[in-house]
Specification:
Layout: E1 24-26, E2 30-32, E3 36-37, H1 42-46, E4 55-59, H2 65-72, E5 76-82, H3 98-122, E6 128-132, E7 144-150, H4 159-168, E8 170-179, H5 182-187, E9 192-194, E10 207-209, H6 211-220, E11 223-235, E12 244-255
Parallel strand pairs: 4-5, 4-7, 5-6, 7-8
Antiparallel strand pairs: 1-2, 3-11, 8-12, 9-10, 11-12
This protein binds S-adenosylmethionine.
């Protein structure tokens, strides 16, 4: 079924049908606001990676800011994003309003995919998108030199499975960006800290992943950590409103 491997670009003529995860400057349209503004920190966020001439697998592009930035730096981009029929790996809260909330999320995700395609056309991107899930990467996607998993593992119940899936088809380098939980780091343990509890309703986030866990796990998969950094991004809980600092870490590992 190689024909259905990549999505046909959506033609979005009405910008009102779009939402954005990232703040971006869209040529011919102007500035749009998202939850994260990575415009001044993209190189820190992705780490010191030379994308020129590389075939790059990006898990979870969201509205695509990083996709288009990696492409600008010379990458051939293949994105894997959740499809309309594969919902986010939500924490299954037993809450009377859960289904209603899920419906709102579905609508948001649809609008975010529209935002991706609207910006994709505006920047004349050649990035291809496979709609599916990082839990199953079809072998027809081929092999990659680099795979990026930025702000995506924490949202999945089996982040270690996703890293292994990417590692299996990546020849050179894995780039992982995750939230940096200072309390967890102080403990120094190789752990996944469960985020949701009965009160916080963290329906979209499963884990805080410690850098130590990745340092221990990546060599198991044949990769060696070559770079680690932390950095602070601006996160706006409501797009367009003032952001608050949120710390991430970036870890780069090369195939041995
Ligand atoms: C928090 S956003 C991060 C966007 C971008 N990577 C960044 O770092 O700015 C997470 C994205 O990953 C996607 N995603 C979550 N789980 C996924 C999975 N199992 N397979 C593919 N994409 C996934 C979501 O739909 C969303 O677009």
């Amino acid at each position: 079924m190689v024909d259905a491997l990549y999505a046909e670009p959506r033609e979005i003529t009405d910008p009102e049908q779009c939402s954005y995860y990232h703040s971006m400057d869209i040529p011919g349209h102007g500035e749009v606001h998202g939850f994260f503004d990575l415009r001044s920190s993209v190189d820190e966020y992705l780490g010191p990676v030379d994308f020129a001439g590389k075939r790059v697998l990006e898990i979870g592009p969201g509205s695509g800011f990083l996709t288009f930035e990696m492409e600008k730096r010379g990458a051939e981009m293949v994105c894997v994003e959740l499809s309309e029929d594969k919902p986010w790996d939500y924490v299954p809260y037993q809450h009377p309003q859960f289904d209603e909330w899920l419906e709102g999320q579905r609508e948001y995700m649809h609008r975010q995919r529209n935002g991706f395609w609207y910006a994709h056309a505006a920047v004349q991107s050649k990035a291809r998108v496979h709609y599916g899930s990082a839990y199953h990467l079809p072998k027809e996607l081929g092999r990659f030199q680099i795979a990026t998993m930025a702000a995506v593992l924490l949202h999945n119940r089996d982040p270690l499975g996703i890293i292994a899936n990417c590692a299996q088809i990546t020849d050179e380098r894995l780039v992982i960006v995750e939230q940096h939980d200072r309390q967890q780091v102080e403990g120094g343990a190789a752990d996944l800290r469960l985020v949701p509890n009965r009160d916080n309703q963290m329906v979209h986030t499963w884990w805080h992943i410690s850098p130590e866990l990745l340092r221990q796990y990546l060599p198991v998969l044949g990769f060696q950590v070559v770079h680690e950094s932390t950095h602070v991004e601006q996160f706006a809980s409501v797009p367009g409103e003032a952001g608050e600092p949120l710390e991430h870490f970036t870890l780069i590992a090369d195939r041995r």
